[in-house]
Specification:
Layout (H helix, E strand, L loop, with lengths): L12 E5 L3 H13 L3 E5 L2 H9 L5 E5 L7 H9 L9 E6 L5 H10 L2 E4 L5 H9 L3
Parallel strand pairs: 1-2, 1-3, 3-4, 4-5
Helix pairs in contact: 1-5, 2-3
């Protein structure tokens, strides 16, 4: 097999805030193979601190994580008091949201994905479309 030719571009950095080890492992493998630099945090509060470092290009944010919810993390990162953030925020969840809650989340996030409906390969393809 020939190695894949990847275009020369700066390595994009992804923060995954996800407490389900199996899911984060799948994402890490797929994203690392695709050339991303990946950091995983299982705790909402620590994930928020990492996100506020403004050191990431994309944040994959699960809604149900320990200490503070992903919704609270999102509000603190995108609320009126928040510092400007270069990262795109992609909500990842398996929770069914009422329509008005999901609409509110989607206003603040850059994308909203249902984990059960997307494979790691599809996630990589989707993230490749985010500029």
């Amino acid at each position: 097999m020939e190695p894949e030719n990847k275009p020369e571009q700066p390595q994009r950095k992804i923060l995954i805030v996800e407490d389900e080890h199996f899911i984060s492992e799948l994402y890490v493998r797929a994203l690392t193979r695709a050339g991303y630099s990946v950091t995983v945090e299982v705790d909402g509060q620590r994930g928020l601190k990492l996100a506020q470092s403004n050191d990431f290009d994309i944040i994959l944010l699960d809604l149900m994580v320990p200490t503070i919810t992903g919704i609270d993390v999102l509000r603190r990162l995108r609320g009126p008091e928040a510092a400007p953030l270069k990262a795109k925020i992609v909500i990842t969840t398996n929770l069914e949201q009422r329509e008005e809650i999901r609409a509110d989340i989607e206003k603040q996030a850059d994308a909203y994905l249902v984990k059960a409906e997307i494979t790691p390969r599809e996630l990589v393809e989707f993230l490749g479309t985010i500029k």
